[in-house]
Write a structure and sequence with these properties.
This protein has about 260 residues and is α/β, with parallel strands linked by helices. It has helices spanning about 10-20, 35-45, 85-90, 95-110, 125-135, 150-160, 175-180, 185-195, 220-230; strands spanning about 1-5, 25-30, 50-55, 115-120, 135-140, 160-170, 200-205, 210-215, 235-240, 250, 255-260.
Length: about 260
């Protein structure tokens, strides 16, 4: 696995080049869409033949029920209450109107793009819908619920819809103090997923909310991605795939780094 001081947008360029070498115009899915800001970048960079966007656009449960955010009646003192993210969502996370507005923003963004489909369902229900339709994707971007069990479920389900030369990308795949405040479980879920499924990590960004690319073991896509990193002018460090779960963001005096000790 290569640890790269890049952004996820650079990863999209690597994947776009790899799919071009494979003579594939990819089919892309994103789980967790919000306003569609990341989706439009993926669309413009990877130029998919089709894109499916899945999000429930549902409000967080009201107190004291924290829903999937935390299993406890009282939040642990190391986890921030969901309300601190109101500004990010553009309104109270407990008001359905906030998420209805986000959905309308997303619909407006993509209203004139005919090969983008929005599915307003939970990822679990959307999986059943897409599986019944026989859908298959070359890239699935997982960015929905960030708690451990839900991320693991998304990975275990949607791996079935990834093409033989396809990949999975994940956001917020790091252990950091900022992530701990959000009760993130993405990194832990991925570390367990690659023990259960024939996928391997090919590259990871550096940062408190890192992005990660997973490819099928032995795939040509993985080999192409590796070679494109080798041929690029970016600095990267190779670490054993098995160390992924040990990754921890370390804050230095001037920048963030990743430690695997």
């Amino acid at each position: 696995m290569k640890v790269v001081n890049w952004t996820r947008n650079d990863f999209y360029k690597i994947l776009a080049s790899s799919f071009s070498f494979l003579d594939t115009q990819p089919r892309v899915a994103e789980l967790g869409v919000l306003r569609g800001e990341n989706a439009i970048v993926m669309y413009q960079t990877m130029k998919p033949s089709h894109m499916t966007l899945v999000d429930s656009w549902l409000a967080f449960p009201s107190f004291p029920d924290f829903g999937a955010y935390s299993p406890f009646d009282k939040l642990p003192n190391w986890v921030s209450p969901p309300d601190v993210f109101d500004d990010y969502f553009g309104g109270s996370v407990h008001e359905q109107a906030t998420f209805d507005n986000l959905y309308e923003i997303c619909c407006e963004r993509f209203k004139n793009i005919s090969n983008i489909r929005l599915i307003r369902q939970s990822t679990e229900l959307a999986f059943e819908t897409l599986k019944t339709e026989g859908a298959l994707f070359d890239c699935v971007y997982v960015d929905a619920n960030h708690q451990y069990e839900w991320v693991l479920r998304d990975l275990m389900l949607f791996q079935e819809l990834v093409s033989p030369e396809g990949c999975i990308m994940l956001n917020d795949c790091a252990f950091s103090n900022e992530g701990m405040r959000q009760n993130l479980g993405v990194l832990e879920a991925v570390a367990h997923f690659i023990k259960r499924a024939p996928f391997r990590p090919v590259a990871m960004t550096v940062g408190s909310f890192a992005d990660l690319i997973l490819v099928r073991q032995g795939s040509r896509l993985g080999d192409l991605c590796d070679q494109l990193f080798v041929d690029s002018d970016v600095n990267w460090v190779e670490v054993p795939d098995q160390l992924l779960g040990a990754a921890k963001v370390v804050t230095g005096a001037r920048r963030l780094n990743v430690s695997f000790t």
